[in-house]
Amino acid sequence: FIRVDASEFIPRTTNGCGIDSQETSTNKINRDLLAFDAGTNEYAQYWFNWPTGWNTAKLTFYWFATGSSGDVVWSGSLKCYADGDAIDSAMGTPQLIVDTLSSANTIRQSSATPAITPAGTATSGRLTVLEIARGATNGSDTLAVDALLQQVLIEKAT
Question: Are 81 and 127 in contact (CB under 8 A)?
Fold first, then answer.
């Protein structure tokens, strides 16, 4: 698996999520966060090398919010690049997962997404971009405040 902290993602220039750092008031727990708005689909990307033996991947999202309840739609898509591929290439089909916030300021761990097939050919060592998003305009996204992402876990889909 590959664990990606919020600080390692690059928000897109177009509809990119916000970047924040927070400290809790009592015990002074610090963390870097990506802030995904409630009303606009927002995105961030992470570059890595495709692992040996993987054909597809799945994502788990670690997040929280200051609101008290609602559902968040997270998505992920991938693109593997071969030598000579154009950088401005389409991503693979995004896969969605819906997760529910049950109380404010508590860590949420989503279920894993369905298997994500990257655009391009998934070959060991290939430069790969992961794009994550909050589907705020999806009818299943009902959380009325920012979804604050702390980490994403990328795993081999079996």
Answer: yes
Cβ atoms of 61 and 97 closer than 8 Å = yes
Residue partners of 54: CB distance under 8 A and separation at least 6: 122, 124, 156, 157
**Whole-model pTM above 0.85?**
yes
pLDDT in tens, 7-64: 999 999 999 999 999 898 999 999 999 999 999 999 999 999 999 999 999 999 999 9
| Cβ burial 7-32 (10 Å sphere, 16+ → b, else e) | eebebeeeebbeeeebeeeeeeeebb
**Cβ-based neighbours of 139, under 8 Å, separated by 6 or more:** none
Closest by CA position to 113, among listed 63, 151, 70, 56: 56
Q: What is the dihedral of CA 100, 151, 155, 115, to 10 degrees?
A: 40
